[in-house]
Amino acid sequence: MMPHEPTGRPAPKGWCPGAHRPMLSGDGLIVRVRPRLARLTAAQLRGLAEASLAHGNGIIDLTSRANLQLRGVKQAGTEPLLQHLAHLGLLDTDAAAEGRRNLLCAPGWIAGDATHRLALTLTERLVDLPALPAKFGFAVDAGDGPILSDAPSDIRIERGASGGLILRADGRGLGTSVTEAEATDKAIALAHWFVQAGGSGRMAGFDAPLPAWAAPVEATAPRLPRLRPGLLPLGACLGVAFGQISADDLLRLPPVSVRVTPWRLLVLEGLAAMPAANGFLTDPDDPLLAVDACPGAPMCSAATVATRDLARRLTPVPGRSLHVSGCAKGCARAKAADVTLVGRLGRFDVVRLGTAWDTPSQTGLLPEEVLAFDAL
Question: Is the torsion defined by CA of 188, 193, 196, 202 positive or negative?
């Protein structure tokens, strides 16, 4: 075994890739597209797939913020790609406007309901926000109960236990009651308070006392279950293994509008039957839904191991979670898993009931040794 000294979670990059600000990875530039209100029209989805083939390597990621990332974009292809995104109505005016639009919207909204109305209002008011940390974002989750509780966000508008709306600072178990008319103003005011009080990272890690008007006094309504592949009232829900799909598979989908979720799922609007969907997961009990695996080497320059082939071979038994991480940053999963395999110097460390940056119980295993070790 090789020596291992845990050092805590390695610092992530302080920003997320965008369309105006791509990020370099092992397979080229990553260009992130942020669908408005978690929705793409059929034309936009097809246009994104075609753009991925024309300007990237034909691989598209679904992120935990319900965004899509086009991978393998060459430097010379960025300007034509931006023009393509602008034509599709998927490009903000500049990097600053794009950075402010860190807005996660519950994907099951119906036109005219509270989530839809609040998301539109908050989108219009993003210009009133202060300068916030790059990863700081909002969640509009005003259905019968919250569904985005485990998705990354900092300021949340949710349904409270009393049936009204609450505004909740992430990391606090309770929120403050708000009316729909005042929810957006108070969400923006809470963002200003965060900055003025010295916040510089994420809300969940900021323990300064909240202002009196935002006192946490009300619990959220019972959480709604996370979506799973299958037929939903909104349409057909398809899973995406590891959150990565090919542009060709997207082009084979029926030509309907699509809701993007933070759980590696796409919902095809209006379908009353599951479509033929090569490349997607259609079984709600598919064990791959419980597996998190980052792109790994060579797609990510920080990784020293390939991840996803091994993850498929180690698909866990039902009820257990598996995380295969190319390095100790743990980008694919920030919370603990039953078993986490962490790449280090071309081999794997094993962490049980922990995260990629926790102390391993076994170190320095080759992929064949991981399989023989039967980590699950």
Answer: negative
